[in-house]
Amino acid sequence: MARISFTKMQGCGNDYIYIDWNDRTKALPASPAYLAQKLSDRHRGVGSDGIVLILPSDEADAEMRIFNADGSEARMCGNGVRCAAEYLFRRKRVRGDTARICTKSGIKTVQRKAPGLLQVDMGPACFEPAAVPVSGFSVPVVDALAEINGGAVRLTCVSMGNPHCVLYVEDVKSANVAYQGYAIEHSQWFPEGTNVEFVQVLGPAQLKVRVWERGSGETQSCGTGACAAVAACVRSGRCRKDTDIQVMLSGGVLRVRDTGTTILLTGDAAEVFEGTMEI
């Protein structure tokens, strides 16, 4: 058996188990997917939405690899990258108030506005079908009327370095997130699966959102999902461009600004506890 040291962290209720693999001489776990499934189990493990490996990088301050609770590897996580940066700041592994973290979706720059409050430049949203990817479309899917599980919904498909499908609902509280989220994630439209955002527009600068995350199910929040929701609303005219949009999720509130050239995500990042577990 092996003993794994970890740090549990959360950003807006999106919780991950961070494992520091900063030592280049130390071999990576043989199966990070298995490790994610084992540790993420909320009854027999630590409990989380997944694990994050913090690795050395020649291009940035660190590299992060994210594995969802089902063992699948994610390309990017907005809440996760803020927590990774806060982890580095707390341990004096970054000079100043700016951290650069390498992800599967490129290097992300994170600014520490205050201890536990960070802003990450997420890059621009992309609506091209091939970038999402979403099958069967040659033009961006924006406010398209589609039938899902016998009901008509308006949806927008967008990439934030990972795939998203944004649905507009009258009331997120009554939305059947588990049923529709699972069906859309595994739909033939999305060859790589997708995250699904259920969005209730409260006003031009305020949204309520529930998220079904690919590989994890419904989570307390999703940083890339909040960005996708705002990008979709700005594109359709429901929200204002270059304005801080308040995104209210089950786990708390994130601020998202779509400048037209990039998307800025601001929110909390906190350590919950440290521990060890035998695997």
Describe this structure in words.
The chain has an 18-stranded mixed beta sheet that branches. The longest helix is centred in the C-terminal third of the chain and has 14 residues, at 223-236. It is 16% helix and 42% strand. The protein has helices at 32-40, 78-90, 177-185, 223-236; strands at residues 3-11, 14-20, 50-55, 62-68, 73-74, 98-103, 106-114, 117-121, 144-148, 151-159, 163-168, 195-203, 206-213, 217-219, 245-249, 252-258, 263-268, 270-278. The model has no long low-confidence stretch (mean pLDDT 94). It contains four helices and 18 strands.
Quick structural overview:
With 279 residues, the chain is α+β, with helices and mostly antiparallel strands. It has helices spanning 32-40, 78-90, 177-185, 223-236; strands at residues 3-11, 14-20, 50-55, 62-68, 73-74, 98-103, 106-114, 117-121, 144-148, 151-159, 163-168, 195-203, 206-213, 217-219, 245-249, 252-258, 263-268, 270-278. A hairpin with a 4-residue loop joins strand 16 and strand 17 (263-268).
